[in-house]
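Proteins fold reproducibly. Look at a sample protein:
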Amino acid sequence: MNLQGSDVAGYLSADEVKMKMCMSSGFLKFQKWLVIYNLLVDPRPLAEIARHTGLSESSVYRIVAEYNNGGPESIETIGGMRRKAWFECVGECSM
């Protein structure tokens, strides 16, 4: 697996991705945007990007594939579910 900057869909510019990265609301979103940003700004072998972002090579490949297929919205949603704060879940648990 050897991804290059040209392998990333042109949904957003590097500056727009950087803005999304800075405005991300969680660490997982930040890491995903960081992968896309790295490929746009400084394309390197997949192994180097994985090492730089603290992810596995397969995770980097999956993030890029999701971004290419689903666009920026694929990064904004984690697992396809709306995340809840812990206190919103308290009432849902029955003992």
Summary: The chain has one domain: 5-92. The two ends are 48 Å apart (CA to CA). Confidence is low (pLDDT under 50) at residues 80-91. Residues 15 and 78 are 22 Å apart (CA to CA).
